[in-house]
Each structure stands twice: as C-alpha cells, then as structure tokens.
Amino acid sequence: MSAIAQEVESQPACWSRAADLAAPLRDELGAPGRRVAVAGCGTSLHIARAFAALREGSGKGETDAFPASEFPSYRSYDRVVAVSRSGTTTEVVQLLEGLGSLPRTVVTADASSPVTSLAETTIVLDFADERSVVQTRFATSALALFRAHLGQDLRQAIADGERALTQPLEPEPTGFDHVVFLGHGWTVGIAEEAALKLLEATQTYSEAYPAMEYRHGPISLAGERSLVWILGSPDPAVAEDVRATGATVRVAALDPMAELVLVHRMAIALAEAKGLDPDHPVHLTRSVVLP
C-alpha cells in the first residue's frame, strides 16, 4: 500500500484529534471581531481560503486569505495565521520574518521547523504529518481544527469521512480525462484543493470554479469525457445545465471534507491506473525551499 493510501485512511481519526486541539484555543486563530489574514502556499492556501470564508461567514470578523508570496503588507490586520505542513516553505518563512510586531500563529506538522521560532503561537498537528509529497490528511486536519475553533460540531463530518473510505467510487474515475470541481462559499477552497490533487497525483486536466461562474465560459469545455463534481452550489440548475453538455455530474452528498476524501481515493486509483507513483509526483517535492 502506498503511503498516501495509508494517510488517506487515517483522516477521520485525525479530524477528531484536531477538534480536540481546538477546544482550548481562544485568540490564537483570531479573537471574534478581529481582522485576520490567513496565508499559505499550494494546498495550504486552499485550506486558508476555506477557513477565511468560514470565519467571515460565521460573523467572527473580516478574514482574508493570500498566497504567502502575495501578502499585502500595506493592509492592517490584528493577526496573521500561516499554514505550512513542513514549516520550511520559503515564501511562508519570508512572510513571517517581515511581519514585524504583528501577532502571528503558525499551523504546522513539525514542531522543530523554522516557522515555529517566527510565531508567538504554534499549533502542531504532528499526528497528521505525511510521508507522501501530496498533502491529504494534514490539510483536512488543519481545516478540521479551524472548523472546530469556529464552533462547528464535526461528528457528522467524521462519520461521513468514515463512509467515504469504504463506499464505491462512483462514477468510475478512469472514464474521464477532464474533471471540474465547483464550490460555493467555503467549498470553493475545497474545490480548488480537489483539482490540485488530480493535477499532482494523476496529471489529469482539472479545474475549479465558484459554481455560479462555471456557466460564464468554462462550461464550453465540458463534454462526454468530462466529470463535473459539484461540492456546493446556490443554484441546483447548474447541475442540469452541465448534464446538457453530455458531461457526467456528481452532486456532493457528504460533508465537503468527506467528499475530498473521495477525491483522494479517486486520485490514487487514477494514478495507479496510469502507472504513476501517487506518493512522488513528477517535478514536485515535499516542500518548496528556494535558494
């Protein structure tokens, strides 16, 4: 069994542990009413975007998400939350070094990594660390931490995650060479992460959009070899419009994090069907460390 397959299977248990870590947190991820910026790179950026949408949508305060390399230093925030599995990503380290006295929190899997010395608060998800280059359980565990911090009850998400580990993959993933993920609100970040998983692990052409934006151009690429996976949409008619193109549509029935588990399983299955190593995608390393 590949490392990523083992890591995918452990996700529901990791979510439970992450939720427990959130219980004593107060201001570390942003006190209610405070302006918060969340930063990361790659997968961590997608999780940052999901957290920002969740926090602001729940009325906890203005929350923005940025790639670490594009952080707007001219804006005023009360706290910066940086997400980095390895804690060595150059852009995240440089961002934290340049924040001056601005309060900052780091969420990482490695308590000994460079970013921990650059933050007032470090939240370590070492139980969710991974051997695979492709992130799965660290990302969803960080999101579980954020959701629990915002007061969400994750019992249903965890139960759905368990179901996602055993239910058949439908539709059969090898029947498509074009996959699109659509989201709404915080699930736009989940859609972006889902598309990245297929790009990384399977070299499948994958896209992600806010659901209502899909009809504004991108739908022109949909066809019989396309799978459009709707993680969230304010308009059920999006699904019907996509079906009219001949594409196959999946409408999410589980918690969005559990749907992402299904995407992880799909990525493993597609990679193996193509003879690819899902643990070590071409041209990728576990952390981007620049000279």
Task: Give a brief description.
The protein is an alpha/beta fold. The chain contains nine helices and nine strands. It folds into two domains: 3-149, Rossmann fold, CATH 3.40.50; 167-273, Rossmann fold (3-Layer(aba) Sandwich), CATH 3.40.50.10490.
Overview of the structural elements:
The radius of gyration is 18 Å and the shape is globular. The chain has helices spanning 3-9, 11-22, 43-57, 90-97, 137-149, 155-166, 187-202, 237-243, 256-273, and strands at 36-40, 63-67, 79-84, 104-108, 121-124, 178-183, 205-210, 226-230, 248-251. The protein contains 9 helices and 9 strands. The model has no long low-confidence stretch (mean pLDDT 97). The longest helix has 18 residues, at 256-273. The strands form 2 sheets. The protein has a 5-stranded parallel β-sheet, with helices on both faces. It has a 4-stranded parallel β-sheet with strand order 7-6-8-9, with helices on both faces. The protein folds into 2 domains: 3-149, 3-Layer(aba) Sandwich (Rossmann fold), CATH 3.40.50.10490; 167-273, Rossmann fold, CATH 3.40.50.10490. Helices cover 37% and strands 16% of the residues. Helix 2 (11-22) packs parallel to helix 5 (137-149) and helix 7 (187-202) runs parallel beside helix 9 (256-273). With 291 residues, it is an alpha/beta fold. Strand 1 (36-40), helix 3 (43-57) and strand 2 form a beta-alpha-beta unit.
